[in-house]
Amino acid sequence: MNVALLLMAHVTAAAAEGEPARVDLARHARIFASHATPGEEFQIGNAMDGNPETKWVGEGHPLSFQPTSVVLAFDAPVVVRRLVLLSTVFRDRLALKDFEVYAWAGDGWAGVSPLAVVRSTRDVRTVVDFEPVRTTRLRVRIRDTWRDDHAFPRLHEIEVYAAAPGVEGRVLKSAPVPGEKGSEAWLLRRAMGEKTVYPGEPFDPAKGYLHYARAFLDTMIREGTDRYGPVPSPMFASLLDMETHRNPEDTPANVPGQRFGDRSIRGGNLFHDVMLLRAAGYLTELTGQPQYRRAATDYLKFFADRCPQPTGLFPWGEHAYWDFYREAPADATHEFLGGVPAAFWQRLWELSPEAVRGEGDGLMNHVVNLETFAFNRHADVRRPLPTPRPRMGYMDFPRHGGFYIHLWAFLYAKTGEAKYLEWSLKMLDKHWKGRNPVSGLPSGCPGRGDRTASTETMLSFSISVLQAAPLLPEGEPRKHCQTVGRAFLDSLLRLPHRPGQGQFLVDLPLDSKPEQATGEYSKPYEYGYGGGFTADNAALLVAAHRLTGDPRALALAEGFAAYYAAHDPPPPTEIVRAHVYASILGLFADLYDRTAKPEYLGQAERYARLAIERLFHRGLFRGATGINHYEGDMMVGNLVYNLVWLHALQNRTRVKVEPNYFNR
């Protein structure tokens, strides 16, 4: 019996007299979602598994920005007449409010003839009846929830009911779905398996790697600056269409592992551009052309003069950025995004010491306990916390504490003010005193009682404090900083990483013996929110070797490099971020600089060529393969910097480019 007959036989057998029959979706349908909570994409099947306790959770973006669609694809045509959605009340809000239902018409959705339009449902179980229709797909286009953020729809179960046997169902004609933007349609096609390879540019050896970095900056200076609000500025836009080189009105969809609230959609984010501006300075040194350093200087001067907030904090990082259209912060949440090199702080200090001091002093807005230095990785850029501090919840990831220590140490070296040394040592001791006696590591987030140690956050913390040590006065403060950094590194280097498989152990139970630890491992070619990407960790191992001389760190980094040398990144049909190419390229460049082994230079060149041929188009690097826009959030600036670094190593230039350890 073929699939169509099997499905209809099942429906017929289940039908009661005059009643629609429930289709067994688990047996006869596949399900797709255009959005899902990062890390939970595989759970979409929970919405049709017959278990009302399991669920699908949509993404955290506001549905007013982009509707979320759930598509049911049947094994064979079926005449359907009823849809039932089982949602839930979560935190006193029903996780479903407005939605539309469409059927597939053979070559497109029957957009002008929706099966149903539901607004302001208040039922946990919403029953939608409609005129019977023959189709192979149903689409639930979710437009809103009752949540204040208009996000995170939840479906515990979807039920579909077929019409009675013998009902033919009306004929559909395909037509555009009203209000559907190109980004929404693209994402839904991708969710259902359609993939696109966008054009790149063949690498030209005669031009060399520096050409592509330079061409990118030329394009950004000419077409990528702020041309949008009442006050034009030399800041770079964080999101540009690859064809028009403008900030797009139709915002591209999130890529896997990307959160809407972390994207700088309508402006510029200096954190995204830290390494890009560093690359601009090196380009001027390497080419003798002043426009690159001048563009970086103009950008920084504008930012320092116009953007710092009443707390002194910058509107930059994981969430905040400068909105070009409103001439104001797009978000009030300050959070560090990576490891800012001392050379960047130095350049900004030369232009505006007041701005650097303001950011450093403003970091105290993260500290929620002035005695223990418990802190929150989030802080309000607008309003200082009162003293004494109120009782409040917090999330104190160690990596952020390391970033604060480094900036405070820099400010102490510049000013000699005792408060910066005091703050550095208090933050250092918070983590040192919190280490577990068995693993030698502190909790990954003590503020929420986490009994897991995060190796990635502690590797980042260790590098930050070891970089801070030379900025502190000789004697006990510097020695203590070095002792803490080395001790945490020792625990990390004793863990059972799997370099032969390209896997770095990213977490472990807090009271595990390092040699016997178990936990989650990183992925060699995939970056998403929260980390878990092998090459970032491997690059920091080379940093650890530079800072301590520990041969174990170099050996482990070389083990991961061997994996990358023997494997290729996913093909350009898949979404692989510029971040991935940049970090692997940087790993090989750094290993070549440390060891002078020619095979590392060859691998750096291989990954650079792949990045250029897959990402470079019309003067810009797209943010990832499989998409057609530039986005700073995907660390294109790191790729540009590492191409400049590769050029300097390859040509043994007089200009020495510093290693890149930003991604941590």
Would you give an account of this structure?
- The protein is an alpha+beta fold.
- It has a domain at 3-191: Galactose-binding domain-like (Jelly Rolls, Sandwich), CATH 2.60.120.260.
- The chain contains 17 helices and 24 strands.
- Strands 1, 2, 4, 7, 8, 9 and 11 form a 7-stranded antiparallel beta sheet that branches.
- A hairpin with a 4-residue loop joins strand 16 (322-323) and strand 17 (328-329).
- It is globular, with a radius of gyration of 27 Å.
- It starts with a helix and ends in a 13-residue tail after the last helix.
- Mean pLDDT is 94; it is low at 1-17.
Layout: helices, strands, pairs:
Elements: H1 3-14, E1 21-22, H2 25-28, E2 29-33, E3 56-57, E4 68-86, E5 89-90, E6 93-94, E7 98-103, E8 116-118, E9 125-144, E10 154-155, E11 157-162, H3 182-191, H4 208-223, E12 225-226, E13 233-236, E14 239-241, E15 267-268, H5 274-287, H6 291-306, E16 322-323, E17 328-329, E18 333-334, H7 342-351, H8 353-362, E19 379-380, H9 398-415, H10 418-433, E20 452-454, H11 455-468, H12 476-493, E21 507-509, H13 534-548, H14 551-566, H15 578-595, H16 598-615, E22 616-617, E23 620-621, E24 629-631, H17 636-651
Antiparallel strand pairs: 1-11, 2-4, 3-10, 4-9, 4-11, 5-6, 7-8, 7-9, 12-13, 14-24, 15-16, 16-17, 18-19, 20-21, 22-23
